[in-house]
Amino acid sequence: MSNIRTVVINETHQCQKLVEQAFAKADCYSIGVGDSLAELMPLLSQQRAELAVLFLRKVEPQHLSYLKVLVEEHQLPTILISPNMDIELQVQAVRADISVLLEDFQVERFRVQVALSIARYHEIKRLRSNIQDKQRRLDERKLVERAKGLLMARYGLEEGDAYSTMRRSAMNHGKKLVDIAQTTISQLDNPKPNAVI
């Protein structure tokens, strides 16, 4: 972790020297600074940030909704530092993939929070990608199974023969098995005269 391109929103303007020290210690450098949350989107649109650090006086539910969209859109680890956040808002922040730092701002704690926030964000992103990949493969398998069932019912094939027929067709046409399954389903669910599989 080095030279982390950081966008900063600082509504509090407190401890500016401490914030600068913390950024230096955490290998963060500021590529854009704003005084209010409303400035975050324009800053992110102009800069290619790797981290957002938000010092907010008070956090409202609508702030978290706004931040959740930005975090997803820009795929950006985000640290929210605020003295006024009830437990419900903290939970909402975590669900939106936003790290929360509530206690007094300290240089060493911030350095650790940056490292943890970035690691946590990328791990969650990796896990979500794995889930999406597994869901896609499951959906594809369901299509293949459905197509096999239709072939078995329509042509009286055994399960292995129905599968072999689709595999052979996929190889002969240079297509994926799932593509052949989708074609099979569309043809056998909505049969047209002279449709050939």
Describe this structure in words.
The chain has 197 residues and is α/β, with parallel strands linked by helices. The chain has two domains: 4-105, Rossmann fold (3-Layer(aba) Sandwich); 133-189, Arc Repressor Mutant, subunit A, CATH 1.10.10. It is 59% helix and 14% strand. The chain contains seven helices and five strands; from the N terminus they run E-H-E-H-E-H-E-H-E-H-H-H. The chain has helices spanning 16-25, 40-46, 61-74, 87-95, 107-155, 159-173, 177-189, and strands at residues 4-10, 28-34, 51-55, 78-81, 98-101. Strands 2-1-3-4-5 form a five-stranded parallel β-sheet, sandwiched between helices. The termini are far apart.
Taken from the alpha-carbon principal axes, the silhouette is elongated
**How far is the first residue's CA from the last residue's CA?**
54 Å
Low-confidence stretches: none
Order of helices and strands: EHEHEHEHEHHH
Mean pLDDT: 87
Largest sheet: 5 strands, parallel
What is the architecture of the largest domain at the second tier of CATH? 3-Layer(aba) Sandwich
The share of residues in helices is 55-70%
What class would the helix/strand composition place it in? alpha/beta
The CATH topology of the largest domain:
Rossmann fold
Rg for CA atoms? 26 Å
Number of strands: 5
Count of alpha and pi helical runs: 7
Write the layout of secondary structure elements.
Layout: E1 4-10, H1 16-25, E2 28-34, H2 40-46, E3 51-55, H3 61-74, E4 78-81, H4 87-95, E5 98-101, H5 107-155, H6 159-173, H7 177-189
Parallel strand pairs: 1-2, 1-3, 3-4, 4-5
